Structures are given as structure tokens and as C-alpha cells.
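Bench log, entry 3. Co-assembly request; chain sequences pasted below exactly as received.
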Amino acid sequence: MKGENVFSILWLLSIVAIFLIWPLSFLLHNSISEFGFYFFPTLLIGSSLFLFVKRKFYWTAPLLVIGVFNPALALFSVLATLANSLLIYKNKLGWILVVLSLIVFVFGFNKFKSESVFYFDHNDQQVALRNTYLYPDVYTARIFQNKFTIYTNRLKFNFFALVDPNNYFFNFHPREISVTNQNLEKFPFLAIFLFLIGIYFYQNNSNWKFILILSSAAILNLSLLKNFDKNDFILFLPIALAIVGGLSTLSQLFKRWNLILLIIFLIFSYVQILHLIASS
Amino acid sequence: MKKFWPVIALILIIFLGLTMRFYKLGQAPAGFYNDEAGQGYAAYSILKTGKDEFGKPFPIVFRSFADFKTPVYIYSIVPLIPIFGLTTFAVRFPSAFFSLLTIPLIYFLILKLTPDKKLAIGLSLISSLVLAISPWHIVFSRTDYECVMALFLFLLGIYTFYLSLKKPYLIALSLIIFAVSIPAYHAQRVLTPLTIFILFYRFRKTLLTRDYIKYSIVGGVIALLITLPTLSISTTPGFLARARGLNIFSHDRQMPSGYLAEYNGFASSILNSSVFLTTEEFLSLYSAYFSPRNMFNLGDYVPRSSYPTLATFFSWEFPFYILGLFILIQNKELGELRFLTIVLLLISPLPAAITRDPYTTIRSLPLVIPQVVVIGLGIFTVLSLLKSRAKILGFGILGLALFYSILNLYSSGIILNEFYRAKDWDSGIKEAADFINTTEPNIPVVIDAVNQNFMQFAFFLQTDPQSYQKDNFEVSLDDYYNDMSRIPSHKIGKVIVRQLNWQTDTKKDQYLVADNIGISDNQIKEHNLTVVKEIFYPDQSIAYRILRTNPASK
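Structure output for the full assembly:
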């Protein structure tokens, strides 16, 4: 019993460490009002999770508010409600949510567009123009030097940054993004192992559909933004849940080594938290 | 015909790889980096005198710029010089040649290791194709980088090892090839022994039988004899030069990332704990080699290790990579291929991940093999899931993707690379050397020493190695591997490469050669120099200026 209590406490401390770092890091590097602005969507996602766990088909409803609150993330709501209606709860009422999310997206489209990768940059155009003169003929040049390539390069840059594990576990280290990104610490770095275990044994996680839909929708929306930094906070809950899933699976896979592994994880995580506070 | 289609397909893939590697070899990149010149000139010196440029007979590692280059590649250039001359083509040829040989080697290796024959043929062809057009493999194949040859030898060692499981005598050959791969490149010093250990442990029951022991002993003895010279200098400063400065466990020159200098005492022992910071640093560097951002978007940060706008893999390969990884881990029916691919995935980044450089593709080149296999597995899986018309469409789309990728390689590797990376490749030195050859023999030439350029001038001026050895004593032969001192100037015939001296150099009738930082427009006016020739980079900025002094005006 005593051992179980100790284990429970260690487990709880691990969960705290997983959920603490990103919000703490955000708060230490930004104002409270900014924290509130970017944290609010996470609260709505938390409400969605609550409804998802309760098996409500309308679990994506709170996400519509995200689109109203921050039009830059309106596409996220559309994609999430659409995925829900196509893959999980295939009923007509679910499609009403899709329509509503589309309406929200349309109303906020101008704001979304102004924050998207589809902006004119004189320097980018000049580079593309200069490069066309390097090719032997204009047709070959135009395949690689055109407006479409400019936009897709920006999109690819965002997308691959968002699917980079070093983003979440090592604050992009060793290749931090300069100027446009705060390179915040997001999760304990040892949690990368838990995350990978969580992804591989995804079926052990009862929330895997929730995690998959929300993270995919978030990554697609964020990839289209001029600067995804801070807005990527909507990925906090899905990734944290994946890590917790990995922690749970690990405890089943390595029952004998559970305690030792937990202690190691805790030591490194709390030193990291202290380091984060000390360096801010 | 049906029986021969894999062979025909392989020949076509090899031909594609040949084109990617040999098209304009020696001309693109147009420049010639100092390391390449260093290796080429050392080979020339060995050919002419049996000694390197420092007078050391047949060195075990080559002193060069006190960076002690691995010897195998340099010795491979020696027989090519009488055939191709002392040219950039000759120096780069071994890289391209062994890179090309790696394509059929990976085909046969996958064919050997995969139990399911249908999967084996399809997967080996697709993986060979992915390697044939791999930007990562190609960028090092077209220039003088030892890592490509080392990778071929390493892979050949693995292949002969697996062949030896049916033919015991081949174990001796495998060990010998592994032994040759160790001095072929720095990364193999870590990777090869580790791989040998893993393979021998896995197959220990077979290898400890009578049939194998005698061949293992023979092969082991020969391998030891090959490795002995390298082992004999393994504790010298020269041998350890690279490892010492770069590794993350050494804090002599640089504290670990995240070190907080403002804290002392107990707080510092917690916050700056070496275990904590080094573990985090190592894991971040190791993880970087699997990062989709590095693999499919950014590529290597070093201009000479990548092509503009291209990463190590094409971005369209990303979904196949993820799918392939998933299948690799799940599908135990992949047999020995699964084991080897996972092992190579895990150990290949190690030599690179223990150095501070973020995502260095030259040190982690062996990782290209398992990652190519994973991508091939993803592509094969998708194609095999498609039926009839969808399959034809799938092949069509793949064909288009391949065609676009090849065009992209041409665009980035030939066109954009020549424009944007000319300076990184030290373009312009050959033209400067050609002009120097046309100047009056009795008028000296002083070249501003920058970035070890003396070696490139020695190469292009085809300086007699015997005179070079006589005129440029650096260290005694006894201290060849121990003394790290460098001489500040180098004499190459009538040419001297050193820092310009504005007090004395303008008072003699001679030519001065420098870039526009070495000799500015103001200095030209101030010292009344005459611009004889200007050599430009493709972007029209000045690479080199050749000027004549006017001592009469002083």
C-alpha cells in the first residue's frame, strides 16, 4: 500500500511536469494578457475533450468558439468538425456543426488571409525574378521560380517545423528559428520517449482519435499561417495526452523498471523546470 | 523477358545514378575547395616522390592542414593522376565511382536480406532508385568527400558478412573489408567496430562453429595488420585532433548548451549539471537526424554539404518515410532486413550526434541507407495496395515525382549552386593560377593567404612536389603526428602565399593577388597599384584581383 502511494505520487508529479512546462515557459516569456489570449483556445479544447470522453457527437462544438475568438484558427475548427463528421460521428446533426464552422471561417476569412502565408513580399519576388535569368530557358525557370513556389516554400517551412520533434522537446535546438519564433521549451525532453511510445501504441490510448483529429487539423491550419508561433499552443493538449498515453503504456510494458524510470524522468524534468525558471 | 525485367530495371537505375553523378563532374561545382586540393596534391606528391607534401613516406593519416585526413581516399587518387592528369575530375572521380557502385550494392543487400522474394525485388529496386536520386548522396558524390567511399566499403563489409552465413570463407573477406573501411573516414572509426560487434553477437552461434573459426582467425589477423598502423597512432594529438575539439563531452573550449554562467555553488551544480545538460544536448543532436524538418526541408546548414533549396530528401518522400517507419517496426516478416535497418537507423547518427555541429550530413552519411530503405518500403507498400488502374495511376504519379525531382536536382545542383555557392567552393582560384602561369617568370607573385588557399594554388600551378617539400618545412618527420604547429607562409615556385605586408610588398616589382577584402579599392589608390586582371564570381562580385606594384612611385 505504501509502495502504491509512493508510485501514485510519482505518477502525479510526472503528469504535473508534462503539463507544466509549456504554459510556464509561455508565461515567463510573454505578458499575462498574451498568455490569456493564447491559452483560452486550450481551455475550449479541454471542454471538447470532456465532451469527447462523454461520447457526445457534438464534442467539436466548443472549437467553433476558437474560430470566432481568433479567426487565424478558424480553419482548425472547420477541419476538426469535418473530420469528426466523416470519421467518427457520421450523423446529420454533426454536419450542422461543419456548416457553422464554415460560416465562422467565411466571416473571419479576411483576418485569416491577412495572417496567412499568402502575402506579397517584394524581396521574395525579386529573388525569384533574378533566379529566372540563371536558367537556360524561361520554361525550365518557370517550373522552379514562380509565385506558387514562394507560397509552398513558406507552407513547407511551417509544416516541417510543426512536425519536428525537436520543436516540442528541445525548443528547436540545435536549429532554433531566429527572430520569428520564441523557441519555447514545451515538454520535458525525456518525454520524447514517452511520446514515441504513445504514438506507436496509439490503440492503447482511448483518446487517440481525439488526438489525431485535433493535431492534424491544428498542424494544417498553423502551416498556413505567416507565423505560427504562440498560436501553436493549441497543440499543447493533444501532444500532452499522447505523452501521458505513452507514460501509461510504459508502465505496463516495463512493470519491473517502472519506479526507476519514473524517478529518472522526474529528476530530469524538475531540473529542467528549475533551469527554465532560472534562465528566464 | 519477364525474368529479366529486374535486371533491366536495375541497369536503368544505375544509368540514372551515373548521369546524376558524372554529368559535369569536375566542373560543377566550379570551385575547388581547399580540402579537395589538399588531398589531390598529397596524392600527386605520393605519386611523384612516394612522400606527402611534408616529406613523410606513405603516411598512415595525412597531416594536410594539421587536420589529419584519412588515407584511403587519397591513395585511391594516386593511380588516377597518370590517367586523368592533376585535375579536379581525377580528385573527384573516386567519390563518384564508389557512389555509383553503392546503388547496385544496396539492391543486392536488400535482395539478400528480405525473405519474401516479391517484396525483395520490388523494395530493392525502389530503394536503389531513391538512392540514385538522393540529394544527400549526390552532393557528396560529386566532390572529394571520403565519406562516400567509406560508406561503400562499410556496406560491402556488411553484404559479404551476410553472404558468409552460407559461405564461411567469406567471413575473412568481410573482416578485411571492414578493416579497410575504418581508416576510410572518421565516422567509420566508431561505426564499423560497433557494427561488427552487433553482427557477431547476433550470429555468434553460427560464427563460433568450427567452419567459421578458422576463417575468422585468418580474416581477423589480416584485418588487425591493416588496422595496426592506424592503432599505432591512435593516441597521438594528430589522430585525436578532430575528436577532441568537436565532441560535446569536452568542455575545454565550449560549455554545454544551456549553461547558466551567472549561477555559482549549489545552484550551479543543479542547474549546470553536466549530466543534465550533456544528456539534453546529446538527445537533441541525435533527434535532429530524424527530424522531418532537417530531412525534408532545411537540409545541412553547411553550404558545401547541400544544394540551395534542396534538403537531404525530397519533401514528397515524407509521407512514405512515416509509413515506411511504421511498417518497419510493425512487420516482423521483413526478417533480417528489419533488424539491419533498425540497427543502422539507431547507430548511424552516433558519430555525428556526439559533435556540436547541428545536423551534419557528412558525418552521418551512413544514415542515408536505412532512411532510403524506409522510404522505399513506404513507396512499395502504397503501390502494392493499389489495384489495376489505380496501380497504373500510382506508377504514373511516382514517375512524375521522379521526373520533377531530377529536374529539381539539375536546377539546384547545377544552376543555383553555381551562382549562390561559388564563394563557398573557392571559385576563381584556377583562373588566378592560369593567369599567374602567363606572367613573366622573373617577376615574383605574392598571394594573400586566406583559408588555406596555398594548397589550391599548389594544385593548379602543378608545383613540383620535391621543390614544395624542400621549400616548406613545417615539422620534423618524428613529430609529424604530434606537433600541430603551422608555418605562416608557403613557397610555390616563384609564388609566395602569405599575409600581405603593406610596408615592404609595394616597394618591390611584383604581382599581388588577393580578394577585395585583402586589397581594397582604397589600398589600390593609396599604393598606386595597377589592376592587371579581375576574376569574378557568377554574381559579379570580385573573387580575386591580380595587381602589379609600382615601386618607382614609392
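Strands of chain B lie at 445-448, 490-492, 495-498, 511-514, 530-536, 542-548. Chain B is about 55% helix and 5% strand.
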